[in-house]
Amino acid sequence: MTRYEAELKNTSALDPLDTPYLKQVHPLSPPMNGVIFERMKAKYTPDFARVLDAWKWENGVTFSVKIEAKDGRATRYDGISKIVEYSYGYNIPEKKVQLLTILSGLQPRADNQPPSENKLAIQYAQVDASLLGEYELSVDYKNSNNIKISLQTDNNSYIDSLLDIRYPSNGNRAWYNSI
């Protein structure tokens, strides 16, 4: 983690007004072990666009969660922030609370152990699915025989079932995925 922090510290913003790239480092409070890096979204974006880049370690498992945030409090944004308030606001504290809530819902598990109730299984871990809000999950598996399995899912609710029978105008039955 020291190398990653050094990399963030040594990253330069394209616009000198936006420096430093790494804005703050927030250690996680016990019992959690880890850190949140508050950094620019990208070195070419204005510094009001931020990412809270969290790392948590527990029982040999490393969790990484990133959430976008904004901090438009710099005086150079005063004029434009009154015009486009939703873009140049300040939501770091709220996003940090949301991120900490998600981090607290992440627990390690053995890869062959099923997740507990209302938990979403991820490799070597589980997360309380209710903390994620709307989410998309994509997992790819490829073995040495070049067989690839891809699974994509989300928690959106659908009016129709995922597989639906539709009748095209030519009268033939066709199966298709309604997603």
Secondary structure: number of strands: 11
Number of helices: 3
Q: Which segments are poorly predicted (pLDDT under 50) over 5 or more consecutive residues?
A: 157-168, 170-179
Overall spatial form = elongated
**On the 0-100 scale, what is the average pLDDT?**
81
Strand content: 35-45%
Fraction in helix: 10-25%
Q: Please tell me how large the radius of gyration is.
A: 21 Å
- From the helix content, strand content and strand pairing, which structural class follows? alpha+beta
Biggest sheet record:
4 strands, antiparallel
Largest sheet: spatial strand order = 1-2-3-4
Order of secondary-structure elements: HEEEEHHEEEEEEE
Termini, distance in Å?
Answer: 40 Å
